[in-house]
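Onboarding guide, step 5: your first structure request.
Type a short instruction followed by the sequence, for example:

Predict the 3D structure of this protein.
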Amino acid sequence: MNIIDCLKSYYLQKPLRCILIVSLLLRLIAAIFAKGYGMHDDHFLIIESSGSFVDGFDYNSWLPASHYNQGPHGHSFFYMGLHYVLFVILNALGIVSPDVKMYVVRIIHAVYSLSVVYFGYRIANKYAGRQTALQTAWLLAAFWFMPWLSVRNLVEIQCVPFLLWGIWIYLKKDTVNLKTAVLSGLIAGIAFSVRFQSAFILLGFALALLCLRQFKNAIAWGLAALFSMLLIQSSIDFFIWGKPCVELAEYVRYNIIHAGDYLQGSSLMYVYLILGLFIPPVSMFIFWGFFVRWRKYLILFLPCFIFLLFHSLFLNKQERFVLTVVPMVIILGMTGWKEFISLHSGNKRLNRFVKGSWRMFIVINTLLLCVMSVQYSKKTRVESMLYLSKYKQVEPLVKLSDVPMLPLFYLGQWVDRIDIDKDRTGSSIAALLENGIEPRFVLLTDNKQASQTIDSLRLYVPDLIFETKIQPGFVDKLLFSLNPFHNKNETILIYRNQKYFKDKDCCHADTSDNGNKE
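The system replies with structure tokens like these:
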């Protein structure tokens, strides 16, 4: 028996274990190669904050003792706090490299995310049988975006395991007693402290229980979830602020007042997004399956529907918001679709179309998976800071206003980042010099005006010399070429001030008044 036959035989005996192994391998590949961060929030609200706390600095001025703090900012400290604890442990073990710390973070998330595949399989198996459950598990394991998203620090994704775990505890037995309902609610409620908007999924689950006339369980489950939510939030906020749930109150207040300040779109935006993410026409199969048996699977449908309805009606619409329900849409979509297609098994034309669509899906998904799983997102921003981290005392770090926000966690120095207006370079740098601020490094984007910009800067800082060029990754380049407005991933040029760092790779800044070493 050759190795292929051995693998097939093992898969037939232990299919779920095989899927989990493949899922782990894909996520470990992403953990190793898919460095960087996906969006602003998964780095600056989680890693940058916790990393600065460990170093005795409050990057976002979130803590009441910080000089610029004016009260709660409306962020849960739970998920970010877990990273703080991890970084404290890593520092105690002598692991201080930002790059190495992030490898550890991504590997932990890779393992943690396997629970989504496992619970997704269990829930689908409960309702649709083993074959559909295996197909669902494969989608959760190897959908082109799942390994990459699984190792990101997006709260929209990282709250999902608690939701699925809690739901599976409730669904596991045909007869649910109050003890099981309470345990399910307690675990599902933890998701709220990771992502506040998961409250709409929790609300939908409780309402589904009421609709199914499981009144005692609905009350027990809802109270348990509420207790879990309030216990975590109240404990953390009371420790920090001396008051319970103040961050949650500020979060609600801020989003009501500033809902219109962010990206807005069509009320059908998330429908289009899901249809695109899942690769048509298979995406249409999944979406149809999500709706076609909604009454039968109300306990799964209603939480997702209420969540999607709220975000579709709310003014602030960002693509990442919908990610929380993507695994549940896959589970319910595959369950409903398989039941629908089994009722039309005699339609040969439909069957040929479905088989052809799935074959096309596998090809496209595999190609996208190969690219996305190794995608180094925001490479220029991360690599710029890692490059400068070998220098000591880089403050003040000056960048032109068109350079994106820089992640100081990778720099290892919590320094002031000073923006100068790219359209008024000369007057902006002159104003800095008048205030006694002279840049030691200047970062700018590589564009048609770069040479002219440097010439104008050298009129005021004559010792500026080209240091290096940081190129974006392939996907970053592609996204920028498709939409430069929303994907600012330009090539970054770094210039060094020889007055402070005479030689390239010199690690010690000259802090004397005239810039000359004695």
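Each response can be followed by summary notes, for example: The CA atoms of residues 74 and 252 lie 8 Å apart.
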